[in-house]
Amino acid sequence: MNEVVEESFATVVQPSRSGSTLFVASSLDTWATHQPNWIARDFQINDTMYRRLDPEYYAWLRSRMVVAKKAATAGHLHVAAFEDLRVRFNAVHEWAVQHFGESQLVVAVREFRSGDYRPPVAEDETIHTPAPRAYKSAAADISPLAMALVDSISEHALSLGWKRERLYRVGPERGLVSFLKPGDQIGKVTAQSIEIIHPPPSGVRHRFYNPDVEQLWIAKKEK
Q1: Domain encompassing residue 72
Q2: Which of 70, 78, 79, 139 falls between 20 and 30 A from 86, CA-CA?
Q3: Does 152 share its domain with 109?
Q4: Same domain, 109 and 147
C-alpha cells in the first residue's frame, strides 16, 4: 500500500481488534466495541470525543500525522512525542487495512480535502456544570500533541522571560497549551508573544501575548 503509507510513521504494530468496530479520538486514543449498532458515529467519554473509524476519517488522521512529522522534522515537536503518535497511528492504520482494504484507503487519501472535513470535537459542558468543570476536566482537554508543542519551545520561552504557568496553566487564566487545537503549530516566539498558526486551509496566525511584560503596542502615559 505504498501510496497510502508513503509517509512512514511507525514500525511497531499493536494487536488488532478483530471482529470489533474501532472508534478513534483526534489524539489517537482508541476504543473498540463488538456492538457498534448501539453507538452513534461520534460519542464522548468524559472530555474525549471518539469517532467511528471509516476511510475518510482515516485520511484526516493521516493528514494530521503528516503535519506532526513536519513539526518534528522542523524541531517544533519532540521526537519522543512524535514517536508516541507514530505508534498510535500505526495501530489505527493496521486496523483500517484489515477492515477496509488498501485500495479503499488509497482512494480516500487521494480524494480527501481537509478544508471540507469536520473532525470530532468534544462538546463544551460548561452550560451544565459551570462552576467545577474548569478544575475537574480542563487538563483532560489538553492533547498530547499540544503539550509536546509547548514542550518544544518552553526552554526558549523561559529564557525570554515567560513564566512557566503562562505556558502550561489550565483552568482559569489559561496558558498557551490550553489555546492549541488539533493541527495548530507554533511560529515565532518572542518575549512579548508566541505565534499560533492554524492548519490549512485557513492558515490563520494569531498571537498569545505575555501579560507579564511591556507590550510595544501599549503606549505609556507620561507623568
Answers
A1: 21-116
A2: 139
A3: no
A4: no
Q: Is 219 contained in some domain?
A: no
Q: Report CA dihedral (181, 51, 89, 33) to the nearest 10 degrees.
A: 140
160 and 75, same structural domain? no
User: Does the model's pTM come out above 0.85?
Assistant: no
Please count the structural domains in the chain. 2
Tell me, yes or no, whether 95 and 148 share the same domain. no
Query: What tens-digit pLDDT sequence spans the chain (223 residues)?
Result: 434 443 443 333 343 445 588 999 988 988 888 877 778 888 887 678 889 999 999 999 999 898 888 888 888 888 888 899 999 999 999 999 999 999 999 999 999 987 788 888 766 543 333 333 333 344 546 777 888 888 888 888 998 889 988 998 876 678 898 888 888 889 889 888 898 888 887 778 888 888 888 765 444 444 4
> Would you say residue 214 lies in a domain?
no
Total count of residues recorded for the chain: 223
Instruction: Considering only the C-alpha atoms of the chain, give the largest distance between any 2 of them, rounded to a whole number of Å.
Output: 75
- The answer to whether the beta carbons of residues 61 and 24 sit under 8 Å apart is yes
Residue 59 and residue 96 share a domain = yes
Q: Same domain for 111 and 51?
A: yes
Q: Which residues contact 69 (CB under 8 A, 6 or more apart)?
A: 7, 9, 82
Q: How far apart are CA 156 and CA 151, in angstroms?
A: 10
**From its phi and psi, is residue 42 left (phi > 0), alpha (psi between -120 and 50) or beta?**
beta
41 inside domain:
yes
> Which amino acid does the sequence have at 184?
D
